[in-house]
Fold each of these.
Amino acid sequence: MELNIQSEDKEIIDSFLDGNNSAFNIIVLKYQKRVYWTIRKMVVDHDDADDITQEVFIKLHSSLKDFRGESMLFTYLYKMAINYSLNHIKKNKNKMTREVPIDNEFTDKYSDKSESDNEMEITRKNKLIADAILVLPDQQRAVFNMRFYDDMTYEEIAAVLNKSVGGLKANYFHAFKKIQAFLKEKKLKGFID
Amino acid sequence: METNKNNEDLLYSLPDYITGKLNDEGIRHNIEEEIRINAGFREEYELMKETYSSIKDLEFSEPPAHYFTNMVPRINQRIGSNSGFTFAHIFRLANLFKYALPAVSVIVLIFIFTFSNKSSKNENMFVHTEDTITEIMKNNKDTIKTIEKTVESNATEEKELTDNTTVNTSHKVNREKNTNQTVKTVTEKPVANNIESLFADTEQTENFDDYVYETDFSTLSGKEQADLIKKLSNTKF
């Protein structure tokens, strides 16, 4: 039977372990978007996210023979993606936590009239959320993304980050408060309505 | 205290309440009650609700077109390049050596420094011992010379005294009884006894004499050298 992205994870993994290297390509095709977006929401920058996504799949390729199937393949990949992202943030702490001013950079980049007002507004909003995420410390950023975007339960987040549920709730609340403070500041400066 | 803890729990559950992800009915009821009766809590709720409405529709910019189409070949290319010994491996090794090499160098230097200090200390000790022996030998040779001179001068004195005794003996006849006692005293005190009394404080003089005429310490055997050093060190002049 021919494998495709609808095939069961176990079936694909067994095929890969039997020597079918193309089975690994199916795993990449099946999970690349979810892994990429998990990482992208953590590190914000596309190039960084691209690099880390590739690293995660390369690591999976070398460690797939040790995968015991105790958890779902995506949970395994998700953990790797979050941990690689957290390591990246720690390594580039100064770069990652600095606040990127959305005012001048945005105005300079998009002041030409080639783009429509609607496109400009979308780009501005995209940049706003990216900058809001950047103000969060790594732990709060991870919890916020997992809870807000990925709809994970606190128990699932606790399993990924090895933290207590109570602490994660506090992390999520404080992440919300930091984003709130960031938006308030932008509003006071007149950058958002 | 209990109320504060409960309020904190409700506050931490507020984002989930606002985003519609709160499943616990009891907490939901308590939050609604708190919003109704607690002005501070209500204000917090309003601010957070406003934040949520600001960010709920915000999205990250999409990656470039065909980005996901090209993911598989790019990953395969990297896996292929990782399987052989590449510049990346050399770079990693170089990085390893960057830290390992200075550490190893420091350890080697410490060893060299420690051992060179020890051996130079031993050399110094040896030179010092050799110097001491030479010095002792020199001192003892001087002493031997002094003794020889003393022996010579005493022999001269003996000769003079013998001459005097002869003279006194010749006077004996002339002086008869009165001078007899004096002459006897002189003749009964031989010079040899005077020399012996010079060496009275010297221990093992007879053994020492065995080495008196040895002038070159290096011609002696190891045992003889050791014996000589031992004896000389016990010698009191």
Amino acid sequence: MNAIEVRNLTRRFGDFVAVNDISFDVRAGEIFGFLGSNGAGKSTTIRMLCGLLRPTSGTAIVGGIDVTKDPEGVKRRIGYMSQRFSLYEKLTVDQNITFFAGIYGLSKERFVARRAFVLDMAGLRGREDTLTGALSAGWRQRLALGCAILHEPPIVFLDEPTGGVDPLSRRQFWRLIDDLSRAGVAVLVTTHYLDEAEHCHRIAIIQAGRLAAHGTVKELKSIFASRPILEVRAVEPVAAMRALDDMAEVEKTSIFGTAVHAVLRSSDVTPEVIAARLNAAGIPPVSCTFVEPSLEDVFLDVAERTAA
Amino acid sequence: MNALWKTLAVARKEMRQIGRDRRTLLILLFVPVFFLLVYGYALNFDIRNVRIAVQDNDRSTASRDLISSFVNSGYFDLYGEVMNDQEISRALDRNDVRAVLVIPARFGSDVAAGHPTSVQFIVNGDNANTATTVVGYARGLLSATSARYELQARLGSPQGPLVNVEPRVFYNPELRSTLFLVPGLIAYIAMLTAVVSTALSIVREKEVGTMEQVRMSPIGPVPYILGKTIPYFVVSLISAMSIVVAAMVLFDMPMRGSWVVLLGVVSLFLVGALGFGLLISSIADTQQVAFQLALLTSFLPTLMLSGFIFPISSMPEFLQLVTRIVPARYFLVALRGIVLKGVGPQVFWSDLVALAIFAVAILGLASLRLRRQWA
């Protein structure tokens, strides 16, 4: 059985359809990425899966329990952590752990073991009596994760868990997520950072409440199988982009840092042909090579197609 | 059992937060006593030592007797003599005196002969309340004097009046307004700490996002709300009882009734007040809104419509009806009964019933709303 099974899940707020007929599964031990721009419906979906918000229609089975029938039962089987790292800043590290252990109803023996686990995991040994508000964002983030998994839930929801955290802490945090996954925990994570999404086993892209695409990273990138991506570097990238846009072989272009990505209409065209054309147009490219599509290419492509 | 442990976990956390937040704790525990001091000394309706000037056009034994009866009453201080109308106006204009007593010429011979005569009493009316009271004092003194001369004329010898009023004021023999006000203050301050602190503490969790985090855990709304309210109940109770003790020490307030009954009545009132705070927290999304709502819906009615300062019986009919939904009104009756009269619940049971109805209704409404929001 899957950890999460979502079928035709829909949520309306008045006339506005926040989540529109979404279906997907998350398996145990899987890291499932939820991508989408702000207001696309990610948080609304998570709130429904956690039993906080009733779906208008459709079903969601989380940890084997229907969220509409037994929200309390769902809450016992999930851990939740959000970008706000919702800890009590005026309490110490230890007091926060004690509080969350209390509301999860941990027994004394289990509390001792789990407290030790969280302190080690978050690297907060020796800081048990520090006020949480005085910790750096990275530490607070790891403590928040620790408090969310005190009761060892088989399913964990992470709602933009890495916002406002430095890159090193983000990397450390993803290592913790990998550990959870290896321990068999299903992790559903939403993120803005597309480089992070590459860590996910499978990804769902949600656009305006609809599931625009989903699958493994490889599967998602396969939409570019017959449309190779050419990365062109030039002294004047904007001029190069305009020239590429005028070529019949080029489907579309976008700026990636200092380079231009051009999606070609067929895989028959070679980079040399394009380079020669650019030379002829008086914009000699510094480099002109095929590249593997990134998730950002995928995301932009999906976004454009659903918008159209 | 499980729910009980979770309630305790929340209560313990809340206590730690209150303890950590020195400012809030200070506000909860010391501001009430500070309020008591300020209000207790400032809100004083007793009028004494009214300065008067005298224009004595008679200069007889009778006129001097009249003047000394004013001064000896304790209500009036003699400021000095004035000679003419200009001086009267000036003394009143410059606020040197609040009233002027004008005794006509032939006052002494008229009263001796039993002829009717009148003295003039001019009062500065810029403060209507004070003026009314001062006129009342003067009228009382003058009628006593008048009665004395009337008898003297009839019987031929100076005597006291035949029928004398001997007022005896029960419960507050010196008619000190502080004694009347302190129970009101207790209601007012209890309302402040209970309503505001509960409402703010819950709305703060909404604002910061910890509420959302807690809602994601398997704790129902009831253990959470109970756990959050119990600490404030305890703090408010301590705060209210400390006002009683402070009033006894600072203002010689008597405590004639039973402490157990007092504790029970205050607790009953606090339950309603905390319920009100919860209701506000279910409506407001920011602390600012919560505070303003609390101010409008609980302080003002408690201050104006409870009988704390303005007697309900002298309000217009419509407002009297409105006061029926102000819980502090019933609380005050019970509180004054216990503290000043030393009576028990058998006297104010109907007020206790009203308080209980209020508490149950408001808690029911608040829990209904919070439960729905909890999902």
